[in-house]
Design goal:
By secondary structure, the chain is of the alpha+beta class. It has a single domain, classed as Dimeric alpha+beta barrel (Alpha-Beta Plaits). Strands 2-5-1-6 form a four-stranded antiparallel β-sheet. A hairpin with a 2-residue loop joins strand 3 and strand 4. The mean pLDDT is about 90.
Length: about 120
């Protein structure tokens, strides 16, 4: 089953040295998962100051730059896993360095109806 792990945290919680150490350890974990055939994709996201949000209301496109001010934790990265069950996804999430300072949200990925019927998925 495929799961998306969403990494949330405050960008201010990490010193430069801690951030670099986090990236090294996260890369090591990603490579290990890739070798085991459990990693579909993973990546950190750039700073929330680079974010652009798009909403469509009453047929009109609304574009907002930057992060949501009312949100303490921001989405900082993601992993897409292909593992046997939720327990395995939880075990992996608990190993990720950002779990020690922020939150790792785990959500099952539901294929679109057309993808579910495709013989390649």
């Amino acid at each position: 089953m495929k799961y998306m792990l969403l990494i949330y945290g405050s960008e201010d919680d990490w010193t430069q040295e801690q951030h670099e150490s986090c990236m090294i350890e996260s890369s090591r974990i990603s490579e290990e998962l890739k070798q085991q055939g459990k990693l579909v994709e993973s990546a950190p996201l750039r700073s929330v100051t680079t974010a652009t949000s798009v909403r469509v209301r009453d047929g009109k496109k609304q574009i907002t730059d930057g992060p949501f001010a009312e949100t303490a934790e921001q989405l900082g990265g993601y992993y897409i896993l292909d593992v046997d069950n939720l327990d395995e996804a939880i075990a992996i999430a608990a190993k990720l360095p950002p779990a020690s300072k922020g939150t790792v949200e785990i959500r099952p990925i539901e294929p679109l109806p057309a993808q579910a019927q495709s013989p390649t998925h």
